[in-house]
Amino acid sequence: MQIPVKVAQFLLTVNNLTKLLANEAVKSYVGRHEPEILTHLELVVNTVSMEEAVQQQAQTTEAAP
Q1: In sequence order, what are the residues at sequence separation of 6 or more whose Cβ sits closer than 8 angstroms to the Cβ of residue 37?
Q2: Which residue among 4, 29, 49, 64 is the one 20 to 30 A from 22 at the CA level?
Q3: What is the pLDDT of residues 16-52, one digit of tens each?
Q4: Residue 54 to residue 10: CA distance in whole angstroms
Q5: DSSP per-residue string spanning 38-53
């Protein structure tokens, strides 16, 4: 199964965003200067993480005898 280009680009972007927000200096700066944007960025990262967790749970359930 091949992932569409736009989906792959989105996942790469979210991965990079996750790494940026893991940097406390970056997170602090954005939080001080653009707190609303920080809130939205964290929402994107957390939503994707929840989707991944649900998919992993479904795969684990399917694999269980």
Answers
A1: 30
A2: 4
A3: 999 999 999 999 999 999 999 999 999 988 887 667 7
A4: 18
A5: HHHHHHHHHHHHHHHH
